[in-house]
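tokens incoming
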């Protein structure tokens, strides 16, 4: 419960919060062992842990919100690991999933050149990209024209937004966020997460339909992530009750354990959410099909 609710910037608590569902699952094992051992105090303690787990985790498995009835879009978010991910594989996934808008974290100059050579411009001809060394670069690619491009100051990494105009005339703001990771500089991550909330809550760019693609370094069990959902924005996975969509780490012999990559939506609702592997990246890319909600007063 404390891990789920705390906004502490103590490093160990932030790291443990990412694994809170697994910590809570240990309560089931404790309940089983305490029951077998007929340890009454252990049973009651385990029941409390399991109860808290259900209370904190159940909401992400329950679909919420009205379905959209407007234009449908497929959005993808991919962290390409310091620009080293396989560009041809990423472009192949864009093609296979019929992606309309892509946000990329950790975009370098070399990665930008590799993606161009792999043919990303043939699928997503419009872009707003700011490559940078190491993990700092960011990019947005779109099937549709991008205008009102903006980069946000005051962050360790590049943070972007742009307005995407659909053939129907509907306009969707696309945000690409990548705050510094919570480790080792947890304090800085906390500041940047709050600044991202300010952008989503109060900036002119956040009005109307909008999509966020982001590596936030945060899971649903981080209070600072859930605070973003106090704005108009909703987690696409939460909208359909998908539970935790794990994206990291993706380069180990075991499956990804935590969901730190997200697609958020405002004025839209997800129909599907899933992940796809990108070789040489330590993140799975997250893909969501979203449908815009008809604006108030529309026929």
């Amino acid at each position: 419960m404390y891990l789920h609710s705390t906004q502490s910037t103590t490093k160990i608590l932030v790291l443990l919060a990412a694994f809170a569902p697994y910590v809570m699952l240990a309560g089931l094992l404790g309940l089983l062992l305490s029951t077998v051992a007929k340890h009454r105090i252990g049973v009651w303690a385990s029941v409390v842990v399991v109860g808290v787990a259900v209370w904190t985790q159940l909401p992400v498995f329950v679909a919420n919100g009205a379905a959209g009835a407007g234009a449908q879009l497929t959005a993808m978010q991919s962290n390409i690991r310091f620009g080293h991910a396989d560009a041809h594989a990423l472009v192949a996934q864009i093609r296979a999933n019929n992606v309309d808008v892509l946000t990329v974290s950790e975009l370098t100059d070399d990665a930008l050149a590799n993606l161009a050579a792999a043919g990303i411009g043939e699928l997503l001809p419009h872009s707003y990209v700011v490559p940078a060394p190491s993990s700092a670069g960011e990019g947005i690619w779109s099937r549709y024209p991008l205008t009102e491009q903006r980069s946000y100051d005051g962050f360790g990494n590049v943070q972007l937004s742009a307005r995407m105009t659909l053939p129907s005339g509907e306009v969707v703001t696309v945000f690409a966020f990548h705050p510094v990771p919570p480790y080792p500089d947890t304090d800085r991550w906390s500041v940047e997460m709050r600044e991202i909330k300010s952008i989503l809550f109060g900036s002119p760019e956040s009005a109307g339909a909008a999509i966020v693609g982001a590596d936030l370094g945060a899971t649903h069990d981080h209070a600072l992530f859930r605070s973003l959902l106090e704005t108009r924005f909703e987690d696409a996975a939460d909208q359909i009750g998908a539970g935790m969509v794990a994206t990291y780490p993706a380069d180990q012999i075991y499956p990804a354990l935590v969901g730190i990559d997200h697609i958020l939506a405002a004025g839209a609702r997800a129909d599907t959410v899933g992940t796809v592997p990108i070789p040489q990246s330590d993140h799975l890319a997250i893909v969501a099909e979203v449908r815009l909600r008809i604006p108030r007063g529309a026929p």
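note: The chain has two domains: 2-61, 72-292.
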